Amino acid sequence: MTVVFTCLDADTLGGVQQVTHTLAQGLARRGHEVHVIGLQRAAAPFRYVPRPLYHHHVLSNRPAGAGGLARRRADRRLRSLLDGIGPGYAVLTSPSVVARAARLLPGSLRPIGQYHGSYDHARDCWHLASIRRHYPELDQAVFLSEEDARLFSEHALLPNASALPNPLAGWPEAMSVLESPRVLGVGRLEGVKRFDRLITAFARSGAPEPWELHLVGDGGELDRLRAHAAREGVADRVVFRGRVPAAAMPAEYLAASVVGLTSDYEGLPVVLLESAAHGVPAVAFDVSGGVRSAGPVLVPPGDVDAFAAELGRLVDDEEERRRLGADARARAEAFRLEHVLDRWELLFAHLER
Q1: Based on the domain organization, do 129 and 202 belong to the same domain?
Q2: Phi, psi of 24 (to 5 degrees)
Q3: For the chain, what is the domain count?
Q4: Bond from prior residue into 50 cis (ω within 30 degrees of 0)
Q5: Which residues lie closer than 8 Å to 260 by C-beta, 6 or more apart?
Q6: Residues 315 and 348 in one domain
Q7: The CATH number of the domain where 220 resides is what?
Q8: Are 16 and 153 found together in one domain?
Q9: Are 196 and 225 in contact (CB under 8 A)?
């Protein structure tokens, strides 16, 4: 069959893009014709798949956020491209893409709307209103956890809500030995990720030297986070690693003993799945059903002292790290790519009937 994934931009360093390329490569390996479309060029493209088996299209050379004539040209190119693609399924990866692209789909492509955030996030911004308006008209609306699918079904009046989790791109054979004195944070250095909280929690955790906090990712908050680490007295123990290629990330997890996630909002963060697959326990704020499904140690949202206490407990107790790491890896089995692809193919078969 033919599957088309459409993103606002398909190549930014981010969870939506990583999941899109992972699913596209997996479905292509199974013999499907797969296209990944970016409506606009990423300002700083990131390569997720070294040798993609799918078709990759970028419709506008203007960066995301461009409007006017550039947007109209991209929409015309999208319509022309989709008209030349065989019958199948169009996976629209966000509310903004659904609102913009659903009307451009030919009748031969059945629309599926994804949402990569949580219900709580959607409720607190414009996303919920957009989902209420546009997603009921789609053949299927897909969310990241059973809990989120239920909440959207009830509060957005969606008759077509279902749950499909994010997949792991691969399954590591090796597990971390959990002996390295390193806490790991992964993500864009932007406000919503709240790495300032992770730095504060690390400073308050009582983690002794030589324990360090390593932050993988880049973004506009780098200078502010450096200054924050200095104010917290841990500037010499917070290591800003910058971007790390996707192929090098397994080594980061193998070198870590604990992962921390302090975001304001998350859907089902891939970092929790990847760390779990490597047997690394995680501490996270309890912000969504997707986060809960990944099985980290949970603390109340925004409670930095509680986060610091759990982080310190894992730093101090290697046996507990091993127990939680083994539990996390067992839970991560459900998110292996083959299992998630099976569920996508079952969804396609259901819609075909």
Answers
A1: no
A2: -60, -45
A3: 2
A4: no
A5: 183, 184, 185, 198, 201, 202, 213, 282, 283, 284, 307, 311
A6: no
A7: 3.40.50.2000
A8: yes
A9: yes
Which domain, by its residues, includes 329? 182-334
Do residues 226 and 328 share a domain?
A: yes
pLDDT of residue 316: 98
The whole-number pLDDT of residue 64 equals 52
156 Cβ contact partners less than 8 Å away, ≥ 6 residues apart: 128, 131, 132, 135, 136
User: What Rg value do the Cα atoms of the chain yield, rounded?
Assistant: 20
- Convert the pLDDT of each residue in 24-36 to its tens digit: 999 999 999 999 9
Residue 13 pLDDT exceeds 90? no
Of the candidates 95, 2, 97, the one whose C-alpha atom is nearest the C-alpha of residue 40 is 97
| Same domain for 204 and 57 | no
For the beta sheet containing 297-299, the strands, ordered from the edge strand earlier in sequence to the opposite edge, are 238-242, 212-216, 182-186, 258-261, 282-285, 297-299
Residue 174: inside a domain: no
Residues 75-93: what's their mean pLDDT?
95
| pLDDT tens for each residue of 142-200 | 999 999 999 999 999 999 999 999 999 999 999 999 999 999 999 999 999 999 999 99
Tokens of 198: 């992770």
CB 276 within 8 A of CB 294: yes
* 173 belongs to a structural domain: no
Q: What is the pLDDT of residue 63?
A: 63
**Do 17 and 153 sit in the same domain of this protein?**
yes
- In this prediction the pTM is 0.92
Cβ-proximal residues to 299 (8 Å cutoff; 6+ apart), any chain: 283, 284, 285, 286, 306, 307, 310
